[in-house]
Write a structure and sequence with these properties.
With about 230 residues, the protein is α/β, with parallel strands linked by helices. The chain has one domain (about 5-225): Vaccinia Virus protein VP39 (Rossmann fold). The protein has helices at about 15-25, 30-40, 45-55, 70-80, 90-105, 140-150, 165-175, 180, 190-205; strands at about 5, 60-65, 85-90, 110-115, 125-130, 155-160, 210-215, 220-225. Strands 1-4-3-2-5-6-8-7 form an eight-stranded mixed sheet, with helices on both faces. Strand 5 (about 125-130), helix 6 and strand 6 (about 155-160) form a beta-alpha-beta unit. Helix 6 runs parallel beside helix 9. The chain is globular. It starts with 5 loop residues before the first strand and ends with a strand.
């Protein structure tokens, strides 16, 4: 049964940064929705995440930074009607688009929570998924450690500027669309992305028994999967 929507106040990020994220994503919600759906299967990233999650019927999964819900159909296919999906995002316009998708599909086992992912709104789950979210956190190591306490499988898709020069140029251009969103300067934007991705992986290494990394899209995207033996 779908749980009611909730709101929880952010506690681990300063309110100014939270405001920037909400305004940036809220302003571009419609464009981001279109872009995310148009590129949903690009480079095999989503398929790689689903494979790494290793979820099945009846499982409960939390998606932090669910955005307009582009991953929800694939997640629902895996957990089935007996599973549970908790979709978390800090931006209400994004959640409204994700909720509209769920209503159209008639799914009864998807819950929406407007919250800061640095403060998980649930106590436990079978798995956690976050795609292109950890680069928004000043301290991704602490955030991912927190996620690792509530699930035995945590899968992160991150920007990883280690590809060829053309791919890195495209990634740098993307960060410049809204520098306040990533809380970075033009001078070291790629270095910062690299540092934050590395920090999120270190958190998995310190909390999980195994961590596997697979690279996609000419090396600019990495999927880091941490598993704890059941």
């Amino acid at each position: 049964m779908t749980a009611p929507d909730h709101q929880s106040a952010p506690t681990h990020r300063d309110t100014e940064q939270v405001r920037r994220v909400q305004e940036s994503y809220g302003r571009w919600a419609r464009l981001y929705d279109w872009f995310a759906r148009a590129t949903a299967g690009l480079g095999g990233v989503r398929a790689g995440c689903l494979s790494a999650l290793d979820i099945g019927p009846g499982d409960t999964i939390i998606e932090f930074g669910c955005g307009p819900g582009v991953n929800l159909p694939a997640l629902r296919d895996r957990v089935g009607p007996s599973g549970e999906i908790v979709a978390v995002d800090i931006t209400r316009p994004m959640l409204e688009r994700a909720r509209a998708l769920v209503v159209r599909r008639g799914w009864q086992n998807v819950s929406f929570v407007q919250a800061d992912a640095t403060t998980p709104p649930v106590a436990s789950a079978d798995a956690v998924l976050a795609t292109f979210v950890t680069s928004l956190f000043p301290d991704p190591y602490a955030v991912v450690r927190g996620w690792s306490e509530i699930a035995d499988r945590v899968v992160l898709a991150n920007f990883a500027p280690r590809g060829n020069w053309a791919a890195n140029a495209a990634l740098w251009a993307f960060t410049q669309l809204s520098p306040p969103l990533f809380d970075m300067s033009a001078r070291d934007s790629l270095d910062q992305l690299d540092r934050r991705t590395a920090a999120s992986r270190r958190a998995l290494e310190d909390c999980m028994e195994t961590v596997e990394t697979t690279r996609y899209v000419f090396g600019t995207v990495s999927v880091n999967a941490g598993h704890r033996e059941l």
